[in-house]
Amino acid sequence: MENLVSTQWLADNLGAHDLAILDASAHLPDAGRDPAAEFAAAHIPGARYLDLPSFFDPASPVPSAIPTPAQFAERMARLGVANGMRLVIYDDSYVKTAARAWFIARMHGVAEVTILDGGLGKWRDEGRPLESGTPQVAPVAHTPAAGPAPVRFKADMLANLSSRAEQVVDARGAARFTGEQPDFRPDIADGHIPGSRNVVFDQVLNDDGTYKSPSEIRAAFEAAGVDLSQPVVTTCGGGVTAAVLLFALELAGKTDVALYDGSWSEWGADPALPKETGPAR
């Protein structure tokens, strides 16, 4: 199964016994939206609600950290997702949160996991069927497993300031990257990690929310001064839109990519860490 599937592909495969569909919608605090209520009102037939806003490790010092293997397995078991099932993930979010769930699932050993290109918005705009309510799913066994885990932590990012072994690419909006627009959280500094480049996450998306072509994705990074022959670490405000960039880079054929999970929520909260403002240097 490819990393990205079309609405037509999903329509053709609805009801397959080995296919699970997860709604991974989550929203920025100022969006004023309730993803659980929206799921109950309308979702793709057979979909299950992942509850991405609660899908993190509360014991970790990293803000909204990736769930542990045990936490992932427990959530999958509760949602009726057994080991070996194919997983389709979608969202209805401005910040394309399906990419975060895709990253988590792949990291925890789901071999066949894909994102629905265009998400619920495209499905709905095409007049495809929707259902309401909260589906009752029988729990199944799900054993923790391991998959690719290209995650970076604060210590890695600090060491990288000296080594420059990996290019850092920030997915936040330009005004937040430069520090012209303050962070919406009062305890978070302005600016970005020194040496970062800025590719806003929506630069890898078309107007309808689908992903751009591999050549267009590569062009967006190259225009920002990113050397795609060298490794990249993606970052953002809290590890969500960073996953959008990482996913897009993989679509473009680049696999030496990692994600800084704490992102600016962690870096910007630590007064001891260096910050830069202004455009990328």
- Mean pLDDT, nearest integer? 97
User: What sort of overall outline do the alpha carbons produce when their principal axes are compared?
Assistant: globular
CATH class (first level) name of the largest domain: Alpha Beta
Largest sheet report: 5 strands, parallel
Beta content comes to 5-15%
Number of domains: 2
Span between N and C termini? Answer: 40 Å
- Counting DSSP E segments of at least 2 residues, the number of strands comes to 10
What is the CATH homologous superfamily assignment of the largest domain?
Answer: Rhodanese-like domain
Descriptive labels:
281 residues; alpha/beta; Oxidized Rhodanese, domain 1; 2 domains; five-stranded parallel beta sheet; 10 helices; 10 strands; 12% strand; globular
Description:
This protein is of the alpha/beta class and 281 residues long. It is 29% helix and 12% strand. The strands form two sheets. The chain has a five-stranded parallel beta sheet with strand order 1-5-4-2-3. Strands 6-10-9-7-8 form a five-stranded parallel beta sheet. Helix 4 packs across helix 9. It is globular. The model has no long low-confidence stretch (mean pLDDT 97).
Indicate the topology.
Blueprint lengths: L3 E2 L1 H7 L5 E5 L11 H7 L6 E2 L19 H10 L7 E5 L7 H10 L5 E4 L2 H7 L25 E2 L1 H10 L3 E4 L3 H5 L18 E2 L15 H10 L8 E4 L5 H11 L5 E4 L2 H5 L14
Parallel strand pairs: 1-5, 2-3, 2-4, 4-5, 6-10, 7-8, 7-9, 9-10
Helix pairs in contact: 4-9
Quick recap:
29% of the residues lie in helices and 12% in strands. It has helices spanning 7-13, 35-41, 69-78, 98-107, 119-125, 154-163, 174-178, 214-223, 241-251, 263-267; strands at 4-5, 19-23, 48-49, 86-90, 113-116, 151-152, 167-170, 197-198, 232-235, 257-260.
